[in-house]
Amino acid sequence: MKTFIFSFMSLSMLLTACAQKKASPTDLEKNLNKSKNIQTSMQKDTATFANGCFWCTEAIFQQLKGVDTVTSGYSGGQVENPTYEQVCNKKTGHAEALRIVFDPKVISFDELLEIFWSTHDPTTLNQQGNDVGPQYRSVVFYHNDFQKERTEHFKAELEKSKAFDKPIVTAIEPFTNFYAAEDYHQNYFNSNGNQPYCHFVIRPKVEKFEKAFKDKIKH
To answer: Which among 181, 75, 60, 183 has a CA at the least distance from the CA of 137?
Structure first.
């Protein structure tokens, strides 16, 4: 799996290019700028990402400055209040996902997208490493037009720059639901660090993340 392919500097350059304004903004751009202003004036905002096993991804986003809470759960399916066993049976339509509550004055949605795409393989359909199934698919569930536009733009820039050897299969879908996973899934890595899966799968991902994004980590 090709993870941590981007340096912080290269992605920052992409984000800077994405943020440049045109001389004559369209109505869409005006609306997006208005949405962005509303976002940055909010005390808290929410992002919902699916990018593989939530045990792994939770452990990464929990460490970020400006992130208030990270909840592991299920999103994007048609079954209400699903159990872990139901999701694993691949009949609910849900993906293992994270609900990330963050302070946009400290960390932006673009920065969360940067970390989202840098810490999993967005080119493998319904798979992350040895975890296989639609519940492990790569998805950004956007909550508003601003998040939709930023995600689409960021994805297009990554594809244009050939950042990955294969096409990006990350889906961009409107947020419809989120159901918190069972209690034993929450804060899993911090509570079960000595378990084999944590030691051999999660810990290497966390260590790579900490090295690549050390300036964004809580101290």
So the answer is: 75
DSSP 155: H
In angstroms, the Cα distances linking 143 to 50, 88, 113, 157 are 14, 25, 14, 21
**pLDDT per residue rounded down to tens, the chain (219 residues):** 444 444 433 444 444 444 433 334 455 455 555 545 555 556 899 999 999 999 999 999 999 999 999 999 999 999 999 999 999 999 999 999 999 999 999 999 999 999 999 999 999 999 999 999 999 999 999 999 999 999 999 999 999 999 999 999 999 999 999 999 999 999 999 999 889 999 999 999 999 999 999 999 997
Q: Which residues pair with 51 in a beta bridge?
A: 138
Residue 53 annotated to the active site: yes
The pTM of the whole model exceeds 0.85: no
Gap between the terminal Cα atoms of the chain: 29
Catalytic residue among 53, 56, 88, 198: 53
Kindly report the number of other CB atoms within 10 A of residue 149's CB atom: 18
Under DSSP, the state recorded for 137 is -
* DSSP letter, residue 5: -
Bridge pairing between strands 138-142 and 67-75: unpaired
